[in-house]
């Protein structure tokens, strides 16, 4: 177990008058134990108790070979793990559970009286995960460095005879060659009109001269995620495309320039959004300015107009304003930033200035 992280969880549980909780999110379990298991449809749950009676419930198909410092309770496919859990928890105390725990497990535990009441306690570990320690910061830097290298290679691969889908396959090979552990999310690669769809699915179209080409990519390395977007032009830069690109680039830079401890997320969003609105394209910036990232590409927290929380040192999130003109073009430029004691560190070093490919 990561003792410091576990102690922080237990301390927050005590503050919230909570004696027990079940952690079922594999990523949060990894955060505490450094053991990553993807159980599929089978139950995986870490039981935490402020009295120290911690247990990991796991199917025997996933044997744990390292000493986690807690009891491991194995079950098999012929047993009901919820019945095992229900016999060992405090039935007279509130039970905290994850927000994404399948109803087939939660409802069964409720029927068996595995707690006096049930509440969502995901916020405890989700909040702790927003603050990266030095080991995590270095892992995020490495993942972003690999992503920078991948972007350089991918951009060179944009040619007139390669479809969006083919570029996704090329990117997979690029990550493999660089030593990354795969995609942190399904890549968004779009030409022209498809680039105008913020989450467009890569298809079989080929680029046409003057198309904007959105390259939104990310890899995983040592379980930590990267994410960045660059927009380039195929063969030539139309006047309208240049105008939109320069507005989005300036919005990206303006948002990053105000990031420091104490600044609100909504104010960072406004720095990008107000500029785009001022230039007459506010209605075409259709999403939040960014999202938190770490062990998952989208961790708890975002850079949006409704998030009034203040940024704090150790937080890592994206800055990704965009303008999307339906049926015509789309431009998005995204960097990851790490909040420092007096400002921020941009984790992406690959150029985001305007350029032509092909």
UniProtKB/TrEMBL annotation:
A molecular-function term among this protein's GO annotations? proline dipeptidase activity
Q: Does the keyword Methyltransferase apply?
A: no
Question: Which ranges carry the Creatinase N-terminal domain?
Answer: 5-129
Identify the domain of life.
Answer: Bacteria
**In this entry, which stretches build a coiled coil?**
none
| The keyword Glycosyltransferase belongs to this UniProt entry's keyword annotation | no
Domain Peptidase M24: where? 139-341
Q: What keywords is this UniProt entry annotated with?
A: Dipeptidase, Hydrolase, Protease
Matching entries from InterPro entries are given as: Creatin/AminoP/Spt16_N, Creatinase/aminopeptidase-like, Creatinase_N, Pept_M24, Pept_M24_MAP, Peptidase_M24B
Q: Which Enzyme Commission numbers does its entry carry?
A: 3.4.13.9
Top EC class for this record: hydrolase
What this protein is called in its record is: Xaa-Pro dipeptidase
């Amino acid at each position: 177990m990561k003792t410091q992280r576990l102690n922080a969880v237990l301390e927050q549980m005590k503050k919230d008058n909570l004696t027990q909780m079940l952690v079922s999110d594999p990523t949060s379990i990894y955060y505490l134990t450094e053991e990553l298991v993807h159980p599929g449809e089978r139950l995986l749950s870490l039981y935490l108790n402020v009295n120290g009676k911690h247990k990991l419930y796991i199917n025997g198909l996933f044997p744990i070979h390292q000493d986690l410092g807690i009891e491991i309770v194995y079950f098999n496919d012929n047993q009901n793990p919820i019945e095992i859990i229900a016999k060992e928890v405090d039935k007279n105390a509130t039970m905290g559970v994850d927000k994404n725990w399948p109803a087939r497990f939660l409802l069964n535990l409720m029927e068996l009286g595995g707690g006096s009441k049930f509440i969502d306690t995901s916020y405890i570990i989700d909040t702790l995960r927003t603050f990266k320690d030095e080991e995590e910061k270095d892992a995020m830097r490495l993942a972003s460095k690999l992503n920078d290298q991948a972007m350089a290679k991918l951009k060179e691969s944009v040619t007139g005879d390669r479809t969006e889908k083919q570029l996704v396959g090329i990117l997979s090979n690029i990550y493999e060659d660089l030593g990354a552990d795969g995609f942190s999310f399904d890549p968004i690669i779009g030409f022209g009109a498809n680039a105008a769809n913020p989450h467009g699915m890569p298809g079989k179209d080929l680029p046409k001269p003057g198309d904007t080409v959105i390259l939104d990519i990310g890899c995983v390395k040592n379980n930590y995620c990267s994410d960045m977007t660059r927009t380039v032009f195929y063969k030539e830069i139309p006047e309208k495309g240049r105008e939109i690109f320069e507005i989005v680039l300036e919005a990206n830079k303006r948002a990053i320039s105000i990031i420091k401890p104490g600044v609100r997320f909504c104010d960072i969003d406004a720095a990008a959004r107000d500029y785009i609105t001022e230039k007459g394209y506010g209605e075409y910036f259709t999403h939040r300015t960014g999202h938190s990232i770490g062990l998952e590409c989208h961790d708890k927290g975002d850079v949006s107009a409704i998030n009034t929380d203040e940024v704090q040192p150790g937080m890592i999130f994206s800055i990704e304003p965009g303008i999307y003109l339906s049926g015509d073009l789309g431009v998005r430029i995204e960097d990851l930033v790490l909040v420092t004691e007096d400002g921020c560190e941009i984790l992406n070093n690959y150029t985001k200035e305007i350029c032509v490919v092909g």
